[in-house]
Amino acid sequence: MSFNCQRANLKKPDSITKALVSTAFQDHISKQLELDSLVNLNFKKPISRNKICKLDAKSKVDSGLSKNIVKKKTFNDEKEYVLTKATAADLPTLAEKLGLVGIDDSRKQIGETEWNEIKIKYKNRQEFKEPCVICKEPLGINQQVLLSCTHTFHRNCLEMFEKHSGKKACPMCRKERYKARVVYDASRYHKNVSASKIQAAWRGYLVRKWYKNYRKMVPPKNPILRKKFFEEKLSDITNRLIQSFNYDADNLLEDIEKNLKKSRETFKNFDERYRHISEEEWSSLLTKVINRNHDECSICMNKYNLPCSIFDLEKCLDQNEAKPIVLLSCSHLFHSVCLNTFEELNLDKINVCPECRSAYRKREISTFFNKN
Fold this sequence. Notes:
4-stranded antiparallel β-sheet, 3-stranded antiparallel β-sheet
């Protein structure tokens, strides 16, 4: 183990005894190896757990007035200060005082002028813009520590590094016995960059908003874009007009559908009731009924004699004199009495066929025979 021991030229070597020289060297070596910390250990007697400590306790009402109000940290509180203070280990040893060993420069305290020179070198390299070497995160607004070797780190990162490594040395240059100072250059730089980003984003938002409003008011010169501009304007005006009316589209469509259905039924019944039916059409209807061979009245469920052909119609009329038969324009047959009774009991304003529910015109079969 080498200790930078340089013997000085003493004027009076006989005046210093060998015991004093050996004590001075022993003190110097123990301080360099930090062995003096073992001498100051306090070995106190362990406190027995079974012993009960009686304390005079008094009740106290907490009104909240006695609490210290912690003020929030402002930008004016960013004052730089030296983190490592002078200790007994930084004082010169007896061997250094006697000139037996040269004085170590790392144990000297750094003044304000020297700190300014260190900060100039550190700022020239612009290390406050770079991330922390230990955690690889931006320095940001966290506390930043500047070492006497002109390297900078997060304060928490440096403390954890010293705790895990077991020695006080710079993580980059491995310089021991360094001095540390808390600075806020990275914090100021981070705030300026953040403020400029916020201002740029806000300006961009205002410009985009202004441009959108400008495009809404002033039509473009390109004919295609100009056409699209006016189409959007027209659709916008139409939508606002529609939204200004209070209406229910479902109920409106339902009412329209009901009205159309009623109008269709009205026109259909009108055509069936008032249209002119010629003799040929009546004859074709009668032929159609005879060919269907339906010999039962649908109202009274009684049978009537139907001819096999239109030529046998006269014989059937003689047999059905008690209940005359009526032919409807929808090609259905009923007893005349049954149909009249059905019409009297019908609640609808328009008479409809009992079978197909359509408007009709009626004619007795006896009229066919009389005309023929």
